[in-house]
Design brief:
By secondary structure, the chain is α/β, with parallel strands linked by helices. It has 9 helices and 8 strands. The longest helix is centred in the last third of the chain and has 19 residues. Bound molecules: 2'-deoxycytidine-5'-monophosphate (DC).
Length: 229
């Protein structure tokens, strides 16, 4: 019997904030008939729970306990993931400034990451997924069929995030500084820092349109699929 699942790829897209991962992952998934999973949304959901439960972002034990008692669900949609925390739709709330800041802080803890990685592996194991994050190609799926490291010039990334936040009416003044601080934390933490996997394809979206990035990844994916037979 033909196992159709074996032909479905696992595609990892990693990179810093503002590089365009979410939109690109959603569009690539749609083109291939795959699901897009936003691993950062899971860290954000836990961060929200920590905020609401008054847990300190430094308290690894408390955070892990919280994670174990949580149900974090990602529902892929054409424009990203709908995120359910213990059955409640928190998709909008987790994009706010306080949660964004907190997510970067709770994600430094190895035990929190271990819990997240285990959940993410369960979600993507069957293939047919485009998972985006910081450590998908290095830790979650080191054997992913296709690994993309999507980057862009920091000034461009800051501008993109600023534009997104402005739409939501958030103050713009310190946004760029906060993004730089989060970037630095994500890249320099001891546990699974943001780095490109050795076998990742590096894509710099600074001078590339979103369409061009999506097309390149789709082309690479189709080549992988053809090679799988
Ligand atoms: O992708 P994002 O900006 O929504 O992620 C929020 C935070 O979660 C980010 O500051 C780093 C962390 N994160 C991570 O450590 N590992 C991932 N795979 C995804 C996100």
């Amino acid at each position: 019997m033909v196992d159709f699942n074996s032909k479905k790829l696992i595609i990892a897209i990693d990179g810093p904030a503002g590089a365009g991962k979410s939109t690109v992952a959603a569009r690539v998934a749609r083109k291939l008939g795959y699901v897009n999973l936003d691993s950062g949304a899971m860290y954000r959901a836990l961060a929200l729970k920590a905020i609401e439960g008054d847990a300190a972002f430094e308290d690894e034990d408390a955070l892990v306990k919280m994670a174990h008692g949580s149900r974090i669900r990602l529902e892929p949609t054409v424009s990203g993931n709908r995120v359910l925390l213990d059955g409640r739709d928190v998709s909008g709330r987790i994009r706010e400034r306080d949660v964004t800041e907190a997510a970067s802080k709770v994600s430094v803890h190895p035990a929190v990451r271990a819990w997240m990685v285990a959940r993410q592996r369960e979600m993507g194991l069957g293939g047919g997924v485009v998972m985006e994050g910081r450590d998908i190609g290095t830790k979650v799926f080191p054997d992913a069929d296709l690994k993309i490291f999507l980057d862009a010039d920091p000034v461009i990334r800051e501008q993109r995030r600023l534009d997104q936040q402005r739409i939501k009416g958030a103050p713009a003044e310190s946004m760029a500084a906060e993004l730089r601080e989060r970037d630095l934390r994500d890249r320099t933490r001891a546990a699974s820092p943001l780095v490109a996997a050795e076998d990742a394809m590096l894509l710099d979206s600074t001078h590339l349109s979103e369409d061009a990035v999506v097309e390149q990844i789709e082309r690479l994916a189709r080549e992988k699929l053809a090679a799988k037979g």
